[in-house]
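#help-structures

NK: newbie question. if I give both the sequence and a SMILES, will the prediction place the ligand too? trying with flavin mononucleotide
OV: yes, paste both and it writes out the complex. here, I ran yours:
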Amino acid sequence: MAYTPKILAFAGSLRADSWNKKLVKIAVSGAKAAGADVTYIDLKDFPLPIYDEDLEKKDGLPANARKLKDLFLANDGLLIASPEYNSSVSAALKNAIDWVSRPATGEAPLGCYDGKVVALMAASPGALGGLRGLVTIRSILGNIKCTVLPEQVAVPKVNDAMNPDGTLKDAKVQASVEALGAKVATTVAKLKA
Ligand SMILES: Cc1cc2nc3c(=O)[nH]c(=O)nc-3n(C[C@H](O)[C@H](O)[C@H](O)COP(=O)(O)O)c2cc1C
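OV: that's the protein plus ligand as structure tokens.
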């Protein structure tokens, strides 16, 4: 691979023992194996107030939003595993997306999302694996200029599906999550060629 794809990976959960944090790390290993340079972050390390336009007008972008935005700008692709809350996107993920979307003076609107190659995944102890939340996340990111890969993985009954070391018991599902991470890397490399 001539170009080394740069990929940012995170979960849409703040929970310390999050299944989605474990899941996205599987995709990270797939992306790394495909030659990508991957930065994994925990949104809990970037606490943000609920987006409030008055607050932004008064104080500007919070320091953590700026840090997150810089990470988005520095990467070509995103690996996102997110829980489904009440059939939709988690507030933590939506709030981060909203803050990061705010343009600073001189920045192109949605410049930090434009052309970003994104893979989505979800894990849930429930029967649908968070699949309904992915529909919403795909719609949001597609509407703000991301290229969201058609492939995605939702892992149902995740509390029974994962080994203590964070790998998935079903080798086929494990491979599909690794392949999803690799697909972001290879897609970015093709686009940059
Ligand atoms: C407010 C709330 C709403 C939830 N709604 C759903 C839901 O709609 N579908 C689902 O599969 N699980 C739902 N769950 C359960 C989550 O899937 C479960 O807590 C999961 O472990 C969260 O992901 P995490 O382990 O990555 O933190 C909900 C949990 C919370 C706290």
